[in-house]
């Protein structure tokens, strides 16, 4: 159910990651980057840098999206609690002021979106189902349902799209011949039913031995400088892995100012 919250001001994206004091112990579990290319020309559109911190059963992920000159223009924070594919999410784009927030509360979730042109927020409340997937939680969903997704019919899921205030029924299945000796496996995410034949599809590429995401092609949730959706091809390679970062370094990255516009 979607609500237009006219007159309700957005109070700002509240990142939950606790500030790490100087000298704080601990490091990231994973620290890596990816590069987004324009599928047609191969031009670099942006890069993204991920920091993942695991503490017991909880996980936090910070993502900075950077212009081609290295300046961060958008930031996303995810906090995973109980179900790996249902994180809380905060996203902010410094170029357009666009913001998204997702909160999980038991058997329901709430989304809040500000399009950047005003402080008015559009909110929605959705039921949480066993196959509900939020944002980067799709990665855990794929890896933990690997065999079912690899079957001929694939597996269905409900992917939450905050900008629509709804979840969309998707089918995830292998894309191409199943070659057990192949080093990578390609999966296709498409809308369920007849809409899947006409709507844009997303291709995911995973290594077969470690089940690590190394490629993505489709519509990005990161829009261009003018706030328009864009199709991208994102590549994550082991060569782009970074050394572990301290919690203080992660906190410093979290505090970097966001650029108001990228120039190429």
Summarize the helices and strands and which ones pair or pack.
Elements (H helix, E strand, L loop, with lengths): L1 E8 L20 E8 L6 E12 L2 E9 L5 E9 L7 E6 L5 E7 L2 E7 L5 E8 L4 E3 L2 H8 L1 H5 L4 E7 L4 E9 L9 E8 L10 E6 L5 E7 L11 E5 L11 H8 L10
Parallel strand pairs: 10-11
Antiparallel strand pairs: 1-9, 2-3, 2-16, 3-4, 4-5, 5-6, 6-7, 7-8, 8-9, 11-12, 12-13, 13-14, 14-15, 15-16
Task: Specify the number of helices.
Answer: 3
Kindly report the spatial arrangement of strands forming the biggest sheet.
Answer: 1-9-8-7-6-5-4-3-2-16-15-14-13-12-11-10
What would the average pLDDT be, to the nearest integer?
Answer: 85
Order of helices and strands: EEEEEEEEEEHHEEEEEEH
Largest β sheet strand count, sense and barrel closure = 16 strands, mixed
How far the N terminus sits from the C terminus, by CA atoms, comes to 40 Å
